[in-house]
Amino acid sequence: MASGSGSKVNKDAESLLRYGLPGIPKEARKLQKFVETTKDDLESKRYSAAKDGADKALSVLGGKDAAKIAAATSSPETAKKLLAQMASDLKSFDAAVTEAQNVNRGSEQEEAARRKAKDLQTSAVSYLNDIEESMVPKNYKVEVPDDYKNLPKLQGRATVEMVFKKDGGAPFDIEGTNFASAKLTMVLDGYAAPVTSGNFVELVNKGFYNDMKIQRSDGFVVQTGDPEGEAEGYVDPSSDGKPKPSLGKGKHGERLIPLEIMVKGDKAPFYEENIEDNGRGGQATILPFSAYGALGWAREEYDSNSGSSQFFWLLFDSDLTPAGKNVLDGRYPCFGYVTEGADFLRDIKEGDTIVSAKVTKGVDQLYY
Question: Where is this region: Disordered (predicted)?
Answer without folding.
Answer: 226-252
